[in-house]
């Protein structure tokens, strides 16, 4: 059996009851065979970034997994599908969006999966919740890069 790998998943939704969708996704990650939920950020609200529709509810989950990175991606896509995720066009509003940010220290680039996620350092909706679950991954210069992006945590705006 392979040793567990620590991975991080970005969660987001902006259709329907987005808050409930993200909370249900945390539960789905916690109960997925081969995954253990070891950390979950608070929920954040952001305006769509390079996307359309209503505000997003965002979060980050930290997991330990014995699954391979492609198998984690398959699990994330299955959870999205269970939540009714459709992909009618690029950056369409989402009932649930799950992105694998990190899989240990793995670096990979394939048509299906790039690790670490190529834009994680450009998005406040990733950096703020990531800092909740893995603060060592977020550097001051990362936060400086997103200073103009408005993000709300627990009703308080941070810019």
Structure characterization notes:
- The longest helix has 14 residues, at 18-31.
- This protein has 159 residues and is an alpha+beta fold.
- Strands 1, 2, 3, 4, 5, 8 and 9 form a 7-stranded antiparallel beta sheet that branches.
- The N and C termini lie far apart (44 Å).
- It is built from 4 helices and 9 strands, in the order βαβββαβββααββ.
- The chain has helices at 18-31, 69-82, 124-133, 140-145; strands at 5-13, 35-40, 44-46, 56-65, 97-103, 108-109, 114-115, 151-153, 156-158.
- Strand 8 and strand 9 (156-158) form a beta hairpin.
- It is globular and about 45 Å long.
- It is 28% helix and 28% strand.
- The protein has a single domain, classed as 7,8-Dihydro-6-hydroxymethylpterin-pyrophosphokinase HPPK (Alpha-Beta Plaits, 2-Layer Sandwich).
Brief summary:
28% of the residues lie in helices and 28% in strands. It is of the alpha+beta class and 159 residues long. The protein has a single domain (5-158), classed as Alpha-Beta Plaits.
């Amino acid at each position: 059996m392979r040793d567990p790998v620590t991975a991080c998943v970005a969660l987001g939704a902006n259709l329907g009851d987005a808050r409930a969708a993200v909370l249900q996704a945390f539960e789905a990650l916690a109960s997925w065979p081969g995954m253990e939920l070891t950390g979950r950020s608070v929920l954040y609200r952001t305006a769509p970034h390079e996307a359309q529709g209503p505000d997003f509810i965002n979060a980050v989950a930290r997991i330990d997994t014995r699954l391979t990175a492609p198998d984690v991606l398959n699990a994330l896509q299955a959870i999205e599908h269970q939540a009714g995720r459709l992909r009618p066009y690029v950056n369409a509003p989402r009932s649930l969006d799950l992105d694998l940010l990190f899989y240990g220290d793995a670096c990979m680039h394939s048509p299906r999966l790039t690790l670490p996620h190529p834009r994680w350092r450009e998005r406040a909706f990733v950096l703020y919740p990531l800092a909740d679950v893995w603060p060592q991954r977020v550097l001051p210069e990362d936060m400086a890069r997103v200073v103009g992006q408005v993000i709300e945590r627990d009703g308080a705006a941070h810019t």
